[in-house]
């Protein structure tokens, strides 16, 4: 290289200049995006509630019939744009008035819904019984909609008068719980908007909607690949009923790259309330003194609402033996799963299809579980294998049944990225290995796992069954035990993925569907005994319906166990806390 | 070759590599308090006398994981490096020695492979495999990383081809195979040795990259897998430094030492690069000869 005498920049100076300019541009860019995502100047941040944990990819449609619709328009997300007739409250199990003001049962197979007389759509037209009938009957004309099974349990839906809807149940096999559960999860849609669309569209769920018209307190303002923004509808009909409007004027859901990006923003106070799995959340207030909270201020922090199950494929050789499945159940360290995989957000799982805390506690029979169920007990697992089954341990440490069936190699799968369930399965693999099983973990992509589980093409899988709802625990018992409506392996099943069959289940389920109180508890107890004797699925841990975490940096008044003004949920009756928020005074 | 000809850099690099090798291969035999998979605590317990580097998200001892993880990473690195070097040398020597259509064909193929980003192929193969043993992963890493070695070896081989000693060997009736084995390859050994070191470091880093994406060897522990879980469980946010600092440090150290080892070997084998030689000729730095072609594998940049 030769030195030049002219005052031209050297290569080194040029590069330094370029990198400085680059850094400057990047810094400026950060400032700009910081402004836009922070809500801009003029105190807009103080009027905006930032929510996270529901939307992970750019939204394409806001059609409530589409299961992938942008938050919160997919069924039962949150009653912001569209509303359901009633809101389920997971604390007391009651259905709170929403678009419907009253739910009555004139006789055993009829339900009657009275609508709010003043309810209107966001375009000003009234919400009538015809809208409700129109929406529910979509299940007949478009069975692909998310509530396509509505008429399995209901016979007819009619508008008795403009503000009354009458639902006839199937007289032979009435199941009011499942129908009520639909009434609390199906978003009612305006007939005057959708009837013309229906005429020109075959697949109604695929119709792209970018300007949703609902009856709720918020309107979609704008959306992009990075966020969803909603503005309060100050003409909301509910103001007259509740006496006030929801506190935040604006509502924004930023779309984060992954869980950790969302958790970091939450810790910094850029997100006010969210539904995300956040490992060791207590460190945020204990170590870092951030104004963060959860429902309970100590373990388990969250209210249990569902039971992730270890689904066992009962058609696989070896796993088709109920005693092998029970030995497996005794070999799993549930306390360790709750402590590590669930970051203490759960009690150790009990051997019951019923949740031991919350609404379902009234059906939970602790004595029944203690007498017939299982808990972590490797000695008992060994006793079942050696004494009851006559299995022998091979030189590789894995048992073989007398007929030569080896207890493995089996794989336990769940989608990659579901870190809490992945870790739960790792604990399953480790603790069952000590008991003489050969189980390895496998974490394919989500779509792959879903197909494998539904088609019965798996050994073991961590998967979900129905959570707490107006139909629980009935629906969960069906999901775990009922073989009716479950096709052979190779075709998609939507419950009982392990293809368990027991002839005693169906009549008991039909009986439980109409029972309440002590009678129901007894029938569920019988079903639970069938479950415990056969272990077609193994409860691994408890999970909340929605994770519920809040940061009071900008908004306060979030409900907690000490101030239970509303349930810790986003869906259903969770809308209530939105009315109680107050800007935090600094 | 006397010991005096090794540079200080060589000793430092060799020392670090030897230390990591010792840690991965011998330490598990020495520190036997915990075995892999033993549960010694809860979710991210702090370092203590019981668990020197705390526990991971499953309550396993991080120090034990680190020893066995290093062993897995080294094993994958060495096996993948050996296979990749073997493949590269075989293809490169054959192409360089034979020339003509064989050379055109083999190099054309190599260039096509070289043009495809290897990380993409790696990810696709790993997803397709479902369950992956340590050895399978090593083979997968090897079959995607040999092309640059083949290209570089071809250049060397076609230069060796023109040397006189080959004519002598040919005149004495040696066959092609014997010529390649005894008269071509031995003259490139110094280069092959360096290529191997680079391949090992590339394989270790690629394994870490794959494992961090969750595509690592199933049912085991490696440095990359440790990082994968540390990220998934947000140890950075929760302040559990013991979960991610030790594997990162070890990976960095190993890759750095291997690259330094390679460059100090280059100095040793290529007299024109020697530092004391350069010092003597400081008067005319511009006259320094260019180093021989020494492509860096794509993965090594990560």
TrEMBL record, chain A:
An annotated GO cellular component: ATP-binding cassette (ABC) transporter complex
Database matches in SUPFAM superfamilies: Periplasmic binding protein-like II (SSF53850)
GO molecular function: peptide transmembrane transporter activity
Pfam family, any one: SBP_bac_5
Transmembrane portions of the chain: none
The Solute-binding protein family domain, residue ranges: 95-468
UniProt record, GO biological process: peptide transport
Classification via PANTHER family: ABC-TYPE DIPEPTIDE_OLIGOPEPTIDE TRANSPORT SYSTEM, PERIPLASMIC COMPONENT (PTHR30290:SF82), PERIPLASMIC BINDING COMPONENT OF ABC TRANSPORTER (PTHR30290)
Protein name listed in UniProt: Peptide ABC transporter substrate-binding protein
Organism expressing this protein natively: Actinocatenispora comari
From TrEMBL, chain B:
InterPro entries: BP-dependent_transpt_permease, MetI-like, MetI-like_sf
Pfam families on file: BPD_transp_1
Molecular function per GO: dipeptide transmembrane transporter activity
Keyword vocabulary terms for this entry: Cell membrane, Membrane, Transmembrane, Transmembrane helix, Transport
A GO cellular component annotation in the UniProt record: plasma membrane
Subcellular location: Cell membrane
Statement: the UniProt record of this protein carries the keyword Membrane: yes
Transmembrane segments: 12-31, 74-97, 109-129, 174-198, 210-233, 240-261
Superkingdom, natural source: Bacteria
Assigned protein family: Belongs to the binding-protein-dependent transport system permease family.
Protein name, as recorded: Peptide ABC transporter permease
Organism: Actinocatenispora comari
């Amino acid at each position: 290289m030769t030195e030049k005498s002219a005052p031209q920049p050297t290569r080194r100076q040029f590069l330094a200049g370029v990198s400085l300019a680059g850094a400057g541009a990047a810094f400026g860019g950060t400032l700009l995006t910081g402004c836009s995502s922070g809500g801009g100047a003029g105190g807009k941040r103080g009027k905006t509630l930032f929510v996270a944990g529901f939307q992970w990819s750019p939204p394409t449609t806001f059609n409530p019939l589409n299961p992938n619709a942008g938050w919160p328009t997919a069924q039962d997300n949150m009653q912001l744009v569209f509303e359901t007739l009633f809101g389920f409250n997971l604390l007391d199990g009651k259905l709170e008035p929403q678009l419907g003001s009253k739910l009555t049962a004139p006789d055993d197979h009829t339900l009657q819904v009275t609508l709010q007389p003043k309810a209107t759509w966001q375009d000003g037209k009234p919400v009538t019984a015809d809208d409700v009938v129109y929406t529910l009957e979509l299940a007949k004309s478009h069975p692909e909609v998310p509530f396509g099974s509505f008429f399995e349990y209901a016979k007819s839906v009619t508008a008795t008068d403009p503000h009354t809807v009458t639902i006839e149940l199937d007289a032979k096999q009435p199941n009011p719980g499942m129908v009520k559960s639909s009434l609390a999860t199906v978003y009612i849609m305006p007939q005057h908007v959708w009837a013309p669309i229906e005429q020109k569209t075959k697949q109604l769920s695929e119709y792209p909607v970018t300007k949703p018209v609902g009856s709720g307190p918020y309107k979609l303002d704008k959306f992009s690949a990075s966020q969803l923004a909603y503005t309060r509808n100050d003409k909301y009909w509910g103001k007259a009923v509740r006496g006030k409007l929801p506190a935040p004027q604006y509502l924004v859901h930023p779309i984060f790259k992954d869980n950790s990006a969302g958790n970091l923003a939450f810790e910094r106070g850029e997100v006010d309330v969210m539904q995300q799995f956040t490992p060791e959340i207590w460190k945020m207030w204990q170590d870092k003194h951030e104004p963060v909270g959860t429902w309970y201020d100590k373990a388990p922090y969250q209210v249990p609402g569902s039971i992730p199950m270890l689904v066992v494929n009962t058609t696989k050789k070896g796993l088709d033996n109920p005693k092998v499945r029970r030995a497996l159940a005794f070999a799993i360290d549930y306390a360790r799963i709750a402590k590590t995989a669930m970051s203490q957000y759960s009690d150790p799982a009990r051997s019951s299809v019923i949740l031991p805390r919350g609404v379902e506690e009234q059906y939970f029979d602790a004595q029944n579980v203690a007498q017939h169920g299982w808990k972590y007990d490797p000695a008992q697992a060994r006793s079942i294998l050696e004494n009851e089954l006559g299995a022998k341990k091979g030189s590789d440490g894995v048992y073989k049944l007398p007929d030569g069936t080896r207890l493995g190699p089996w794989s336990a799968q769940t989608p990659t990225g579901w870190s809490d369930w992945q870790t739960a399965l790792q604990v399953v693999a480790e603790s069952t290995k000590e008991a003489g099983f050969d189980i390895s973990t496998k974490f394919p992509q989500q779509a792959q796992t879903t197909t494998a589980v539904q088609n019965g093409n798996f050994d073991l899988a961590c998967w979900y069954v129905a959570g707490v709802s107006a139909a629980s625990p009935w629906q969960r018992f069906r999901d775990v035990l009922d073989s009716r409506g479950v096709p052979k392996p190779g075709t998609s099943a939507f419950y009982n993925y392990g293809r368990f069959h027991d002839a005693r289940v169906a009549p008991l389920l039909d009986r439980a569907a109409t029972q309440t109180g002590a009678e129901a508890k007894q029938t569920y107890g019988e079903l639970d005994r069938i479950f415990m004797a056969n272990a077609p699925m193994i409860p691994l841990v408890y999970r909340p319906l929605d994770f519920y975490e809040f940061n009071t940096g900008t908004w306060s008044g979030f409900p907690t166990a000490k101030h239970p003004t509303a349930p810790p949920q986003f869906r259903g009756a969770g809308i209530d806390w939105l009315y109680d928020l107050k800007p935090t005074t600094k | 070759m006397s010991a005096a000809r090794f540079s200080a850099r060589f000793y430092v690099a060799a020392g670090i590599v030897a230390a990591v090798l010792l840690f991965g291969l011998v330490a598990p035999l020495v520190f036997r308090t915990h075995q892999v998979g033993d549960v010694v605590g809860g979710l991210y317990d702090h370092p203590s006398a019981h668990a020197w580097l705390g526990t991971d998200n499953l309550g396993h001892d991080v120090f034990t994981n680190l020893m066995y993880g290093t062993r897995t990473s080294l094993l994958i690195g060495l096996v993948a490096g050996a296979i990749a070097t073997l493949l590269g040398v075989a293809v490169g020597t054959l192409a360089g020695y034979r020339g003509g259509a064989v050379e055109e064909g083999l190099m054309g193929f190599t260039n096509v492979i070289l043009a495809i980003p290897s990380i993409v192929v790696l990810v696709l193969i790993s997803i397709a495999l479902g369950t992956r043993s340590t050895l399978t992963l090593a083979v997968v890493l090897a079959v995607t990383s040999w092309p640059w070695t083949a290209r570089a070896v071809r250049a060397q081989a076609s230069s060796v081809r023109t040397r006189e000693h080959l004519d002598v060997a040919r005149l004495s009736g040696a066959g092609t195979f014997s010529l390649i084995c005894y008269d071509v390859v031995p003259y490139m050994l110094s280069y092959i040795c360096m290529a191997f070191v680079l391949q090992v470091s590339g394989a270790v880093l690629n394994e870490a990259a794959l494992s961090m994406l969750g595509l690592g060897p199933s049912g085991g522990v490696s440095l990359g897998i440790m990082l994968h879980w540390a990220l998934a469980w947000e140890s950075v946010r929760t302040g559990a430094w013991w979960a991610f600092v030790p594997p990162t440090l070890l990976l960095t150290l190993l890759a750095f030492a291997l690259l330094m080892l390679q460059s100090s070997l280059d100095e040793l084998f290529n007299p024109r690069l020697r530092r004391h030689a350069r010092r003597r000729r400081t008067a005319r730095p511009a006259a320094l000869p260019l180093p021989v072609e020494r492509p860096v594998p794509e993965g090594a940049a990560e």
